[in-house]
Amino acid sequence: MDIVTICNLKKYFGEGPRQVKALDGIDLSVEKGRFLSIVGASGSGKTTLLNVIGGLYEPSEGTVIVDGTDLSELTEEQLTIYRRRKVGFVLQDYNLVPELTIRENILFPVALDDSRPDEAFFRNVVKLLGLEERLDQYPYMLSGGGQQCTAIARALITKPSIILADEPTGSFDAKTSQNVAGLLKMTAETYHQTLIMITHNPELAQLADRMVRLRDGRIVDI
Ligand SMILES: Nc1ncnc2c1ncn2[C@@H]1O[C@H](COP(=O)(O)OP(=O)(O)O)[C@@H](O)[C@H]1O
Ligand SMILES: [Mg+2]
Questions:
Q1: Which of 47, 51, 89 has most ligand 1 atoms within 8 Å of its beta carbon, as the pocket-test mutant?
Q2: Left if phi > 0, otherwise alpha if psi is -120 to 50, otherwise beta: which for 138?
Q3: What is the pTM (predicted TM-score) of this model?
Q4: C-alpha 20 to ligand 2 mean position (Å)
Q5: pLDDT one-digit tens code per residue, 35-66
Q6: By Cβ atoms counted within 10 A, which residue in 3, 14, 179, 216 is the most buried?
Q7: Which of 48, 51, 166 to mutate to test the pocket of ligand 1 (most atoms within 8 A of CB)?
Q8: Crossing angle of helices 102-112 and 144-156, rounded to 10°
Q9: What was the pLDDT predicted at 114?
Q10: How far is ligand 1, taken at its centre, from the CA of residue 92, in Å?
């Protein structure tokens, strides 16, 4: 079963002669529970595609159906709920709040959503990512890898069905990158999530079940 179905997706920025065709006719389906990696040169449209799937950008043309829902049919309010509950973002600069402890950072999306944390699930996620001893510490006290683990835990805490990772291993060395990508893959498998990961690193892209390459806003054969 497909969890994401994208048909003839186009996304333009700006107008007139200076218009940028960031996405220029994307057709893509992602099967539920699978791991898809997206590769392609800088400027090829990877982030734009992820942000459309995540409900951050509205398509200029085409349809994006996630779990049976056409995103264009959602109201602003429904879209906000979609972004909070259905998808979890993991970005290159993990955007932890420096004044909050690791525990508070992880639970931040739950607080934002006015819901109660599932304590057992929280402990489970924390254990899986090796953060048990870090909960009362602050982000600056952790390594880059540890901070990224916190960001992954924060993405997982709302139990999203799709994890969207935009170059999550960005500036890490090879070993840390492997670890972080491996953890994302492991948590996605544990919680039966669909994982879509953008990466520049061909070795990490190979961890996925499937890889697509973007060029000038289109999917090209690999
Ligand atoms: N918010 C935006 N406003 C204007 N142009 C944008 C915006 N976001 C992306 N672009 C342009 O769209 C193209 C694709 O960008 P992006 O999706 O960020 O590529 P990638 O993630 O593959 O590097 C680039 O030419 C970029 O400059
Ligand atoms: Mg990008």
A1: 47
A2: beta
A3: 0.95
A4: 15
A5: 999 999 999 999 999 999 999 999 999 999 99
A6: 3
A7: 48
A8: 30
A9: 78
A10: 16
Identify the residue whose tokens are 């916190």.
150
* Residue 122 pLDDT greater than 90, yes or no: yes
CA nearest ligand 1 atom 18, residue? 47
Atom of ligand 1 nearest to the CA of 23: 14
Question: What are the tens digits of pLDDT across the range 145-187?
Answer: 999 999 999 999 999 999 999 999 988 899 999 999 999 999 9
Q: Whose CA is nearest to atom 16 of ligand 1?
A: 45
Does residue 70 line the site of ligand 1, with CB under 6 A? no
Distance CA 184, CA 114 (A): 26
Question: Does 13 sit in the ligand 1 pocket, CB within 6 Å?
Answer: yes
